[in-house]
Description:
The structure is a homodimer.
Chain A: H1 4-16, H2 19-25, H3 30-44, E1 49-51, E2 56-58, H4 60-90, E3 92-97, H5 101-113, E4 118-123, H6 126-135, E5 140-143, E6 151-157, E7 160-164, E8 185-189, H7 194-202, E9 207-211, H8 215-223, E10 228-231, H9 239-242, E11 246-249, E12 258-263, H10 268-274
Parallel strand pairs in A: 3-4, 3-5, 8-9
Antiparallel strand pairs in A: 1-2, 5-12, 6-12, 7-10, 7-11
The structure holds a DNA duplex.
Amino acid sequence: MIELMQLKQFAVFSEELTISAAAKRLNLSQPALSRSMQQFENEVGVELFERRKNRLTLNENGRLMAEGAKKILTDVDNMIDRIRVYDRSRRTIFIGSCAPAPLWSLSPMLNGLYPNFAITTEIKGDGEITAGLRSGVYQLAVTAAPVEGYLCREFMTERLSVSFKPGHRFAGRESLRLCELNGESMLLANQLGYWDELCRREMPDTHFVMENTGADFEAVAEASDLPFFITDISEQNLHRIKGERVIVPISDPEANPTFYCCAGKDSAELIKKLF
Amino acid sequence: MIELMQLKQFAVFSEELTISAAAKRLNLSQPALSRSMQQFENEVGVELFERRKNRLTLNENGRLMAEGAKKILTDVDNMIDRIRVYDRSRRTIFIGSCAPAPLWSLSPMLNGLYPNFAITTEIKGDGEITAGLRSGVYQLAVTAAPVEGYLCREFMTERLSVSFKPGHRFAGRESLRLCELNGESMLLANQLGYWDELCRREMPDTHFVMENTGADFEAVAEASDLPFFITDISEQNLHRIKGERVIVPISDPEANPTFYCCAGKDSAELIKKLF
DNA sequence: ATGCCTTACGTTATACGTAATTATT
DNA sequence: AATAATTACGTATAACGTAAGGCAT
């Protein structure tokens, strides 16, 4: 039977034009490749080469075969790739969350519960997350409200505050409404989903200086005089800055959301295992 | 590297549903196939089977792979077939002749000169043969006149006669014109090309009783009282009938044509080898 | 002389079958 | 008991590399 390795060797020869060069590229000795191609020609049952004493070239049949062989080889590669991607998708839990904080605990929990699965997370607005859950993009969704028709469990509540430099005019307040902050220049991280939407809705005139989440944000926050948001969850991350700052809670109900873990019937066991 | 034999084995397993049955169909021992499939799974790097203690079944990946494997295998088969057909077409000499007789000697000659080639012959009218030569359908054409722009050599001359029963009114003649035979009922073979056209042109009112060439025609000619055409070449074939018959030659120049072998530049060596 | 292809030959590595093991129906 | 898959083990086939030969540039 014709084998893929022979097709591969033939394809390489058709590019290198000599057995010697092709053998080198294939990590094979010259005689081995020579024999392999003779056998291949026999198995096909058709002359593929023009044999001069000192030179081996493809004939018309061979040129046709070279095209065909390359096509077969890429087809096989594509097939294998497709199956690997398919397998990966079956071994991946896709999570959509409308805020970063729930993922900080959720990801490690799932990694522990499903050690053979990859966890892919995405942060988007609450609406997009709900839509993604309904369309099947996410096996698990973290939303700011239960989703009709899906198994939902309260996961955590996050409480928003603002961190001011001590001299700031709001630094003495016991609490604030978001609308009071409208127009203020503030630091804001990227990829905040729900929080991002909330801020842009309630504080349309505020200028937000954007920074990436994580270490970048911490560094800028520490160096800057601008106020920025923290929550009872993110406090844990930003504790080093806390001392030089005054924390004022936000009293709007939307600023103290409860997040829900939601899953469809197919993934109901995800929820069950989590709680 | 993944090999076609593994794809084949996998495809067979996907149809037989057990390693045992598949191994039987593949003329392999059960353990050999079992190992081969384990190795295949490893090479793909993706789980393809669901392993229960006593039962081996395809999982989702495996079902996808089975489809893909079958497609690859048929693609390979088709490719090989295409190349074989292509090779055959390159190893076939297509000859068009305007009459049967030249082929009787030409075919054996070419078979001897080109033992690796298949000879395909076709008998058609002189015009069609010339057109076929010009369009490249024929590497070699036998025509009743040289063809402009092609290498042509006189090949043979054929002389037409009529064979009558001794009592026939034309039986005493030394020669005849074709027009004199117009209206006569005659035997005529099929697939005569030039001769067919000539008869229909010169003897439009004659009723021809058609028979296939070869043994059929001989048998009917022997049994029938009808006159029929013979030539100096075909005489050799019909010698058994000759004795009870009277042969009268036809004097029209068109009834004594010279046939030419014609070939284009690509096939000039055909002509050269023939003469 | 150098590069390229092929044949010859001894060796190694892979693939096979038999036999044994375990588990299921 | 019968069927199915896997593991273990010795063997045989095949594929390989080295060496050698022939031929052309």
